[in-house]
Amino acid sequence: MTNSRTGTRRRAPRRPAALLLAAALATPLLTGCGSTGAAATGELRASAPAARPTVDPAQLAATAEATDAFGLDLLKTLTATPDAAGRNTVVSPVGLATVLGMLMPGARGATAEELAKALHTGLDPKQYALAVGALDQRTKNGDQLTLHQADGVWTQQGFPVEPDYLATLAAAFDAGVHTTDFKKDPEGSRKAVNAAVEKATEGRIKDLFAPKAINPDTRLVLTDALYLKAKWASEFKPGHTADRPFHKLDGTTPNVSTMSQTGEFKYADGSGGIVGEPWQAVELPYAEGNLAMDLIVPAQGGFAAFTKGLDQPQLDRILGALSAQPVDLQLPRFHFDTSNELTPALRSLGVHSVFDDADLSGIAKEPPLAVSTVVQKATVQVDEEGTVAAAGSGVVAGLAAAPAPRQAAQLHIDRPFLFLIRDTAGGRPLFLGQVTDPQAQ
Question: What gap in Å lies between CA 99 and CA 235, rounded to an integer?
Fold first, then answer.
């Protein structure tokens, strides 16, 4: 509509017409099974280049670093209240950055600016999408490590999505468009979307969208499903697992099932210089590829102050300080799920326009779209199962004095800690979380 006095275009009142989601999964040791049936949908595929566009390595590095910062912001926001601070939490910064990266090329004006600021990126929306898509391609399927990521676009039949937007999604994410009828069958559409996510995560993420989350006003759904199954490069022997005390934030000290091994790991510790609170950190590599879990353990009583003060440059310095040495390690087993409706968290990070007065005209000119829901479910399970790594190597050398044996660093994780599952080559955090109670589900 046009204002006859000023000649300017006046936007029509908006109704929530788009759903945005991130679905993430971490199952480092166990496979899942099962899936549900999906309602029949059609699939359209925009014309995409024969090969994905090449992305400048500097842009890839910057995007990986930005995802790190975004993940820390997200975790801090989700654990900001006293009640939330004491709960186990896991998020997938990569999963959420991917779906926001899928949304970005369709955003304009303040909507695009707020998203870019929250994501810590200075790239334009299309460049950001291409960089995220290029990083997402780094999948692995082997005997010891499986990592795959699946993106989905679901749109209302006949909805006039802009061809340039679909072409960008095809080039960046190789994403086709599933057409369904949200208007006539929102519940069937919800089940179809949920079934696709469940299948892509090997049955680990079920019912991502709750009943009525998808409704007749829905026009677009974006999904990302991330699945990881990895085995340790150095196994924890089940016979070494025992019940040991764990000092919770509430002052109680239950006995929890705790794994144990002594071996060569990357380790660091410090106090004052990086975050201001004493800490210890260790990196546990997975077999095959460049993935590892980093564990960061603040001193007893310092968890709250440490996590509050931790930012992305400080995390980089901690990870950069890691060096190989013998470590006497004890690590609790843990397995828990996290489910979050992320609209409040994104608002806390300065993302408002996309919900209230969105300009998503790069997706569709009319009718106007606004995001109504942002959700993520994640699960993580850590136990002893893994692969024994062995190597036979021969070196001929002259006799030399034997080096003095090194003292093993001791890291008995008997208190709340942070964990990070990341690509050690590219730096991206696939999963980020905190464990305050290893026994909580």
Answer: 35
